Amino acid sequence: MAGSGAFVELLEEDVYKYYFDGEWRKSASGKSVSIINPTTRKPQYKVQACTQEEVNKIMESSKIAQKAWAKTPLWKRAELLHRAAVLLKEHKNPIAECLVKEIAKPAKDAVTEVVRSGDLVSYCAEEGVRILGEGKFLVSDSFPGNDRNKLCLTSKIPLGIVLAIPPFNYPVNLAVSKIAPALIAGNSVVLKPPTQGAVAALHMVHCFHLAGFPKGLISCVTGKGSEIGDFLTMHPGVNCISFTGGDTGIAISKKAGMVPLQMELGGKDACIILEDADIDLAAANVVKGGFSYSGQRCTAVKVVLVMESVADALVEKVKAKVAKMTVGPPEENCDITPVVTESSANYIEGLVMDAKQKGATFCQEYKREGNLIWPLLLDHVRPDMRLAWEEPFGPVLPVIRITTVEEGVHHCNASNFGLQGCIFTRDINKAMMISDAMETGTVQINSAPARGPDHFPFQGLRDSGIGSQGITNSISMMTKVKSTVINLPTPSYTMG
Ligand code: NAP
């Protein structure tokens, strides 16, 4: 159970501690932040509201730990990561329990998130020893006017302290996708988990603690992002920010100093369905892509752009599948569970009411109880409706009927987001042409958008992000190149 057994030292009275210098501690603030269970809408857990002074101390110890860690052999870093991966999987149930109670993730999916995170950590350790074990050797005579008297050796070195800020929807997976690459590359990590999901993240951090990482190398600061976030992101001790979330990331990018940024932000992933598509396949993916975890995924299908000639058939098939979805508590593994907060539910409702007022066709009756919103497909959505452009992050899916492929591509490219998109067609040539025309970080052909597998490159254009994730890209992003040039007194060429 969460907060007991191997995790008992995380909890004092009813407040979870934060993690600093290899120990679980109470904040000197004497204040805590409540985490509301989205299903019961009652306080479930409490975490420490850390102070700025505590952040300063964390940065100091993190810097010291990082210097020693950078001198730790790669194979040893990998060994500890493999140990953490095993511990994560071993403790999947208590961590998953937190995900169910803090973010209403269906129980089975919560376990999957933890196991997938363990796999990610292991893969990262393996990838790290390979790619960080290699550098470059350059000779000067390949550039005009030079003789071979300079030999350049390049290697990848750590950045220093990586500030990791994940969002509520994958507080474990999107935390380890930052922590593991940072550590294998020789950095230290300061994690600021999302408030909803903080207790799951603290349990995950404890697995790294149990694995035996050196003191101070990993720290976890809790508190509301709105209160402690700016102090963290603008802290002079931070050498890299890896953030996943919404528009907050745009504000952070504007405020952050001269540090590398990895920003994974929102999305309005378009699903373009052509006349020759396998409509059963498209419908199955629209449902899976649009409604999994109640639509609270960055790569959820967030707008369907379907050719008018096949729109009726698609809508009928999607409606039939939506009718079979179960709606209720995450403990019962329902398909649709309560959205994360009451304010999210209010926001979603605002989008639905706007579409209603402007004449969208409701394929189901709109129904809401507390944070629980029943799945809703809205047909005949037009570009003047907010739902055509905004990210509901809930189980509400707009369908826009199009008469030309260009219309669909134009809608996709006119969005301020550019995360992923997908195309359904049986014609691979057409799919390639449309993929090239879509201005998004990734295009899926004949499947819904997805972030995984976790070693694939993952990036967003425009307001969807800066840089590219995926294990290999994250490791590279969390390093800088160092060159050492050997200057020979006379040119020398390798003979034979
Ligand atoms: P969010 O509100 O932007 O919060 C993300 C994180 O930022 C949380 O840990 C939050 O902490 C923290 N935060 C808040 N204010 C901050 C500040 N001033 N400085 C620093 N950190 C601050 O996003 P969310 O609601 O958790 O997640 C949903 C959004 O994430 C959606 O837009 C979704 O599309 C996006 N997302 C993108 C990806 C991707 O890979 N592109 C993946 C998943 C989700 P608190 O919780 O304490 O406020």
Describe the 3D structure.
- By secondary structure, this protein is α/β, with parallel strands linked by helices.
- It is 38% helix and 23% strand.
- The chain contains 14 helices and 28 strands.
- The strands form 8 sheets. Strands 16-19-20-15-14-22-23 form a 7-stranded mixed sheet, sandwiched between helices. A 6-stranded mixed sheet has the order 11-10-9-12-13-26, with helices on both faces.
- α4 (107-131) crosses α14.
- The longest helix has 25 residues, at 107-131.
- The radius of gyration is 24 Å and the shape is globular.
- It starts with 10 loop residues before the first strand and ends in a 9-residue tail after the last strand.
- It binds NADP nicotinamide-adenine-dinucleotide phosphate.
- Residues 165, 167-169, 192, 194-195, 224-226, 229-230, 233, 244-246, 248, 252, 264-267, 298, 391, 393, 419, 460, 465 line the site of NADP nicotinamide-adenine-dinucleotide phosphate (NAP).
- NADP nicotinamide-adenine-dinucleotide phosphate binds next to α7 and α8.
The residue-averaged pLDDT reads 98
> What percent of residues are in strands?
15-25%
Low-confidence stretches: none
Q: Strand order within the widest sheet?
A: 16-19-20-15-14-22-23
Number of helices: 14
Distance between the termini: 67 Å
**Bound ligands, named by name, code or SMILES:** NADP nicotinamide-adenine-dinucleotide phosphate
Quaternary state reads single chain
Helix content: 25-40%
Say how many strands there are: 28
Q: What general form does the structure show?
A: globular
Largest sheet: 7 strands, mixed
Given helix and strand content, the structural type is alpha/beta
